[in-house]
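Thread title: Can someone regenerate the structure for this chain?

I was given the following input by a collaborator and told the matching structure tokens would be attached. They weren't. Posting the sequence so someone can regenerate them.
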Amino acid sequence: MFGPKAYICESSFNKNLLNIQKIIGNKNLMLVVKANAYGHGLSEICTFIKKKPNIILCVFSIKEACQIRDFGLKNKILIFSKIEKEWLGIALRENFCINLSCINDFKLIEDFTKKHNQCPSFHLKFDTGMTRLGFDLSDLRKVIKFLKKNINLPLEGLYTHFATADEGDLGFANMQLKSFKKIIKSFQSQKIKIKYTHCSNSGAVLNLPESYFNTVRIGMLAYGVFPSNELNKNIDLFPVMSFCGSIVNLRRVKKDTQISYGGVYKTKQETNIGVVQAGFADGVARDWYKKGFISYKGKRYQIAGRICMDQLMIDFENVYPKEGDEVLFFGQRGDDKISIEKIADTLNTTPYVLLTLIGGRTERYCI
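Best answer:
Regenerated them for you:
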């Protein structure tokens, strides 16, 4: 097949998890696999996770959680999204952990419990500064009062989420951590037991070790990518995904030949222009053409002109690649290596955005 391909490397994934575990010690490990495992493919990553039953998986939607069960995994699964009455029965049946994030959520689980005499296990999320889902700090007394009144409900976790833990200035993150510690103390003073306490994300794992508690929640680090360039990069990471495209045509063109839409690229000399069958509909960032390049047989070549929806062109100079040969967009394949962090910095975006673009017709292969 000539289309775009993403090679997902199990050994790199395992090495990343091992190196993360060395840093955090014997804490419970939560792995975030939402958004198609950050573009790596939920099916492919779940294939690797089948050998790791103790890892807790985190998703955003009930649909993602059900997909994991369809893949045959029995791991504990936490759903981050706002709970919905319509799927509480599925969560109970499939043993999903749900997220309670506002006072109104208590009414939903109360009503469900009265009707079914049980409800799904749940984590409580507090907003300490993200201003997203989460109980307000002013709700703390009401939350504790409800839990003391309903001691038989299956409370499992307590958590929050950092807004700036992957940035150089940790002042706001430390303020969030201080608020979360106060919440924990309030629970402890009321003798409310929590099995999983977590607030670390990938940035906090490297920048804020005092935030580990007994459970650590990771995403980008597991996939071998640093979430920002402001982190303490005191860990060896190995990119799990290598994103490639196939050369489907090669032509020799004259100097001053215009390439692609708008003719913004003009050849400086007689050269070989290769057509690669992958475009922005497949996840190649369109703006990357301005300063972008690919790697082929250990050497980088410039992207020639605007990236099309389905294809892009490469200036191969005097090299004659074969039809069907692959070029590397990012990751590492043999002698070819391009850092997705470098692309993100150049485009003034984040690796999260670039990775979750991968879709469309991209075929994923476990290696």
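The mean pLDDT is 97.
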